Amino acid sequence: MCGIIGIHNHPEAATLAYLGLHGLQHRGQESAGMVTVKDSGLQCHHAMGLVADIFSQDVIDRLQANHAIGHVRYSTYGESHIKNCQPFLVNSMLGSMAVAHNGNLVNATEIQKKLEEDGAIFQSTMDTEVIVHLMAKSRKKKFIDRLKESLCQVEGAFSLLFLTKKKMIAVRDPSGFRPLVMGKKKDSWIVASETTALDLIGAKFVREIEPGEIVVFENGDYKSYRLAENLPKRSHCIFEYVYFAKPDSHIFHRDVYEVRKGFGQMLAKESQVDGDIVVPVPDSGVPAAIGYAQESGIPFEMGLVRNHYVGRTFIEPEQSIRHFGVKLKLGAVKNIIEGKRVVLIDDSIVRGTTSKKIVRMLRDAGAKEIHMRISSPPTKWPCFYGIDTPTRSELIAAKKSIKEIRNYIGVDSLKYLSVDSLYWFEKQSQREWFCDACFTGKYPVGSDVISNLI
Amino acid sequence: MCGIIGIHNHPEAATLAYLGLHGLQHRGQESAGMVTVKDSGLQCHHAMGLVADIFSQDVIDRLQANHAIGHVRYSTYGESHIKNCQPFLVNSMLGSMAVAHNGNLVNATEIQKKLEEDGAIFQSTMDTEVIVHLMAKSRKKKFIDRLKESLCQVEGAFSLLFLTKKKMIAVRDPSGFRPLVMGKKKDSWIVASETTALDLIGAKFVREIEPGEIVVFENGDYKSYRLAENLPKRSHCIFEYVYFAKPDSHIFHRDVYEVRKGFGQMLAKESQVDGDIVVPVPDSGVPAAIGYAQESGIPFEMGLVRNHYVGRTFIEPEQSIRHFGVKLKLGAVKNIIEGKRVVLIDDSIVRGTTSKKIVRMLRDAGAKEIHMRISSPPTKWPCFYGIDTPTRSELIAAKKSIKEIRNYIGVDSLKYLSVDSLYWFEKQSQREWFCDACFTGKYPVGSDVISNLI
Amino acid sequence: MCGIIGIHNHPEAATLAYLGLHGLQHRGQESAGMVTVKDSGLQCHHAMGLVADIFSQDVIDRLQANHAIGHVRYSTYGESHIKNCQPFLVNSMLGSMAVAHNGNLVNATEIQKKLEEDGAIFQSTMDTEVIVHLMAKSRKKKFIDRLKESLCQVEGAFSLLFLTKKKMIAVRDPSGFRPLVMGKKKDSWIVASETTALDLIGAKFVREIEPGEIVVFENGDYKSYRLAENLPKRSHCIFEYVYFAKPDSHIFHRDVYEVRKGFGQMLAKESQVDGDIVVPVPDSGVPAAIGYAQESGIPFEMGLVRNHYVGRTFIEPEQSIRHFGVKLKLGAVKNIIEGKRVVLIDDSIVRGTTSKKIVRMLRDAGAKEIHMRISSPPTKWPCFYGIDTPTRSELIAAKKSIKEIRNYIGVDSLKYLSVDSLYWFEKQSQREWFCDACFTGKYPVGSDVISNLI
Amino acid sequence: MCGIIGIHNHPEAATLAYLGLHGLQHRGQESAGMVTVKDSGLQCHHAMGLVADIFSQDVIDRLQANHAIGHVRYSTYGESHIKNCQPFLVNSMLGSMAVAHNGNLVNATEIQKKLEEDGAIFQSTMDTEVIVHLMAKSRKKKFIDRLKESLCQVEGAFSLLFLTKKKMIAVRDPSGFRPLVMGKKKDSWIVASETTALDLIGAKFVREIEPGEIVVFENGDYKSYRLAENLPKRSHCIFEYVYFAKPDSHIFHRDVYEVRKGFGQMLAKESQVDGDIVVPVPDSGVPAAIGYAQESGIPFEMGLVRNHYVGRTFIEPEQSIRHFGVKLKLGAVKNIIEGKRVVLIDDSIVRGTTSKKIVRMLRDAGAKEIHMRISSPPTKWPCFYGIDTPTRSELIAAKKSIKEIRNYIGVDSLKYLSVDSLYWFEKQSQREWFCDACFTGKYPVGSDVISNLI
């Protein structure tokens, strides 16, 4: 997954972009980068690691400018390598141009193959590079026409930010898979993956960039274009609500926390159980657990405590410690757990290995019964639109029945949220505005390509 | 504040000490260090920074041994400098010896002056150094006698771990200000500031080291001694329960989470208010907020969301952003807050500046009313036993009335927990086993020295 | 300037390439990189800085393979940026391919413009990128034919190493501007910019790669091809002999030390002076000074001593120290200099600022007279074939007469070597096999493009 | 070995001390440190590594002050550890005080034992710590008297710099083993191990600090004291001339380069040989080789070229390369060496392993004969006064006859300089003013202690 931020027309654009990236750090912790516009051209800095480690005051001072775009990344397509850091900066007929991309193109490999046959060279292993090639190759005269022509050839998810010497351009794919919002801070315009980044830099949320919309910022103002006359139905990623987006963000016209809490309430309605306490897996399970507790009347307790100083690489003892990996992140509150029937709430189960360790930790702490409740349906299908889910064979719900998963994880009962209840916040007719392929296998875009990949 | 860990008789003592320090990281983030026993003598590594950054696999491999003690530090006495990193390693008549200290000595300056007059040189600015000098100067023959003689001269808080070529010694001051627990992992013994470190390394909690107890570990076994025949009354630090200890720890014979949740319940009883939601300041306010919500029946909501990627130094824009400092750490969930009467729960107010920013953030998010409830009494007095509170003049409650604080912070109402309710968990007769000087100004030890310092 | 190394068919190719780069470090200290072939594809590591800092044992272990190419760089064309580090790694119709380049293309800008018009995108600012584009665009079927077709379109200096999954290819431009040598170590083949790298890794020098030769290494063997039927005359860079190559290298069929010492001998013949001692500017002036001393009979003395621990960035005092910059690098031996008529030998004068400082340092040390002798003709013209000389306006000899330079530098006399004497080692007929454009302004290749740039 | 620098009364004392340390880097590359005086007290920074890496502009800015002392270290006594970095900073009755030490105390262990028995604790493993203890323990009232009393108890080599809040004090042991010079730069005074540091910072050499002299700098002026009434004879370290000091330094009243060149001339007189070329082992053998060449009339050639980018740790191939270690540092110039009778000049032979590798490298380059000439007598005895020579058992000349060494190294002939010729520069009567214990075993100070150690 990735996060993007763009600042147009602010004297401290580099500083704001830096802070914005910090606010989007939860969307990607592998690398980060920024490109700004100076009189001398586009300036770039990117590196592997966290935003706070990559950008020093020196670097920000060197990049400082009126316009900037930035990117945080967790690799979904393309290896983990400095060459794949974004924003992606190239020179072509169009002059210097940088692009930052959140999402995933389904037909990138096909297009790359054709472009290579036509003599193109590829320097990264990112799907984003094909977009730039298509634009450079287009015979259209205007930038906007080249952009449209190129983006109409790619299929998949793309929330994009372009930066040229004069303009910043924001684009969101017609399906609107990934969020993309627009804000204002005095005379400057901000575009970001989530509203939490706007809040952090003190910008006011204006509106979402519409699916299929192109917004061109220039000289402190903007114009809006439509990617094509006929746009397909929307397909917002339901998993942004389930897990990905930050709970204090407002995307797809709703507050994430509220939707997530509703999942918990629906889950309580569907899968009530006689429990003594409701315990979330922190932090992602917290809002649903609060919803579950409120709906069920079972007391909410933070029976698992998160460790805030988890380093990224860890030295393990050779004589392994029971459920070591989870212990670094979580601790169990014994008095709370001991002798209790615990309703354990998590947002999803991917491979099942972590859940298994958490359950053992609760058993060691003396839990009498553990009833696991998942605030989304079973994750059975990989995502091809930007979320870094593992292959089908690694998804436990793709291979095992719920009963088998229950046994594997070692809980007394296990229930998932139904797909229907997922849409509690939406009129039934608008359910189809969401992509829930990870739960249903119904891929709204590029399904022919995808069927060959699964 | 500091945290200490000791491993006796485990082939991977360095690895376990490293993990233990990681589990105690919340007790000190300024520096960390470790000393282990090799045939060649005591080996040492310490540096400024976080445990995960200081110890690489290489370093751990080099230090690997059967016995180890470690230390994390946030300076309370002595400057922030590499010379003040612990464990403190010296050579003397007693051979090589390392010591790790959690706590603060009240009469260190007086003793240092006397020792200097007698020709001693001091290389650190830590109070711990006087203990080592006293031991080296003692005319007693046995280590244990030197230790007793020396520790009987110092006043204040000390949970100590010594390491020599043959022994590991754990000591807790007679007042038992700071926690110190003992655990077992197969044939090895573990001593740690809190039980959370035992849990992390898979050790079983055995018991607390008693106030005034000396435990000498040697050859896989231990012997217990008494620091003196007559010991003063206990004075456990109540602030460990209020804020400092990790909620999943068990110290002073109780689970921290449970005590802290009880503070919230008592607070609800004492200072009920007509609110729509109970919102904690995460993470420290969470257990009390849960208690408050359960007692009052007002729904608990995570209306403030914590950012998990806060770097330590931050690049600020010159054009300042409203309540910037807090925004880096917290985001408000608008839909939850908007139009609501918020009962805001925090564990304490020190200077009041952060609370003020949080309140403004909630107002910006649309809170209709904000009723702040603090799960401890007003913090009016500095700590001289190891907690790094500011001087009296910086403590807002030492200078302002509650009404003035309310106005300063900008809330509709403000209530603190009463000192009486603080001891909800204890028979009235045992209240005196705790030190609550930060709330009451009653310093149980060294009050004559302290009266000159305030 | 740059240096390149290639290892074909050695189980420790990464280690050897690393050591080879170390041996070529004098050819570029700005960045270094390496690409190796693993079953999984081409692996790359590069960074800004020195070889010894960039490659740790971990990195080498990760890269370890049977084939490797490496590069050290000091920017001549293209900015100083991580994007411009080499080897340059791309994917295209030809699969994955890496290229390392020493030299400079004269017509890169023209070709890039055409390629961009045709839809190509450029990600670096290096001339090397056009070669890769031309190869990808070629309609030829075989790799070797694409290579020939592409390289026939570029003008300038190029010693190149390509690495694909199966082959390593070495190419030297028809003029043979830059050196490129081939060596053998048991069953493995080594290609390097200079023989000093072969010596370092214990490889035997086999022969130079010929100007206009393509050598394809595959399966432990090699085949030689000719870039074109008709090749222009050779144009070896005389400045490699004057300054650039390491004195213990053997290039262009001669030992560098010997040629350089001969420059000193010719200089003594041409510009004898009544001096007491011959003093070189270390280290580059040493061989010529030895030659001068032997020819003239004036004693050679190391009157200037080099400091071996010069860091790259230096903290300067605000109250400036006389000729500070030079003092960091050199110290004068007073007793040797005092009262003496010093014949000061350097290889060349570029801007003149350093020479001026050295002269003042010698005056301060008490030199009675200073007669500067330069072991090459005045450097009047910039290099377009790979040496990072400044623009004409910065070359002191392009703007000032020798007399004016003498006054500027502050010496009693100043003489340069004549262009004729430069070729002391060569039959007169073969003088034309060298490029001496920096001294004569006669650019052997691309003179039409160059005339527009000067 | 170590180097020390002190700056008294200069507004950029930290910058000058930094530069001075840089100029003394050849005296110690293991660690470096600096202490400066601020109003707030003494400020300290030290770390393992090279001066240029340890001190950033930030650090220098933080330390900037009017007075500063600095130290570079290569461990001679005490382990290689951050605790042993100097200057050594302590608090005692005397207030805050820092000390930097070049040299070695012979009776430190004895004194430390006594001090420990008396209750002292030692935190470093450096002999310097005993001096500070003695001063703290002294019953004298005045600083100068404490200093005298303390230093009269220690035996060995000590060039010392003390820094207190008001004063800088320079002391040189009565034997004057190590050099220590005084310079002036406008209103500020500089003390340094060698004059090369004065030259670098633009200070004028004033005079040497005399053996047994104490110089107290205060308020921009200084007073000189005598350590004791009766001082022993001088014992300047002859090895400073042979190898240690920088050739452009002036110490013990002579230019190092000149003395060293004289060694070469004497060597030529004593051990003439029929050679074709004289080749030094760079850089230490250069001045003697120049002397040898001038005296013998055999041409001087730089047949071995030094690599200027030698990193400190090096990745070695598993399949070892012939004489790998030396190849990283030196390359042979084949044409110069091939077929020649080489007179190879080095300053000394310690273990003989490096010499053996150099000789093989010359043989591989085609040398016909190799006649090794060493510009000092055989190094048979370890140094106890500050030079980090190995133990006797590792000194090849202590175990083998010259003939055996010749065979081990593999040269056609091997000759050392005689002890008599070592003193070519001195009237015979003043030979006794030097310590040549490393060659003769005659230890001028502490011989009773030393006899137990050998």
Notes on the structure:
The structure is a homotetramer of 454-residue chains. With 454 residues, the first copy, chain A, is of the alpha+beta class. The first copy, chain A, folds into 2 domains: 2-232, Aminohydrolase, N-terminal nucleophile (Ntn) domain (Glutamine Phosphoribosylpyrophosphate, subunit 1, domain 1, 4-Layer Sandwich), CATH 3.60.20.10; 255-444, Rossmann fold (3-Layer(aba) Sandwich). The first copy, chain A, has 18 helices and 23 strands. Chain A has a 7-stranded antiparallel beta sheet. In chain A, strands 5-6-7-8-12-13 form a 6-stranded antiparallel beta sheet, covered by helices on one side. Chain A has a 4-stranded parallel beta sheet with strand order 17-20-21-22, with helices on both faces. Chain A is globular and about 70 Å long. The first copy, chain A, starts with a strand and ends with a helix. The model of chain A has no long low-confidence stretch (mean pLDDT 93). Chains in contact: A-B, A-C, B-D, C-D. At the A-B interface, α1, α2, α7, β16 and α10 of A face α1, α2, α7, β16 and α10 of B.
